């Protein structure tokens, strides 16, 4: 399912963190919260990834 979702800002790839319960566009450093299993993917719903969240995504890639 993640393959079909895209960032509403740049239409790029999103990554999911189950621990943080967010979808993230790492290129733009934007986070989209997932609430009750539903991603909030409106452009205005995006928020800046915190440094802690960004570190979590980087550690997932390793």
Describe this structure in words.
The radius of gyration is 11 Å and the shape is globular. It has one domain (2-61): N-terminal domain of TfIIb, CATH 2.20.25.10. It has 62 residues and is an alpha+beta fold. Strands 1, 2, 3, 4 and 5 form a five-stranded antiparallel beta sheet that branches. 18% of the residues lie in helices and 27% in strands. The chain contains one helix and five strands, in the order E-E-E-E-E-H.
Summarize it:
The protein has 62 residues and is of the alpha+beta class. The chain has 1 helix and 5 strands; from the N terminus they run βββββα.
Topology (elements, then pairings):
Elements (H helix, E strand, L loop, with lengths): L14 E3 L4 E4 L4 E6 L2 E2 L7 E2 L2 H11 L1
Antiparallel strand pairs: 1-2, 2-3, 3-4, 3-5
Number of domains: 1
Structural class: alpha+beta
Radius of gyration: 11 Å
The largest β sheet comes out as: 5 strands, antiparallel
Q: Spans with pLDDT under 50 lasting ≥5 residues?
A: none
Main traits of this protein?
62 residues, alpha+beta, N-terminal domain of TfIIb, five-stranded antiparallel beta sheet
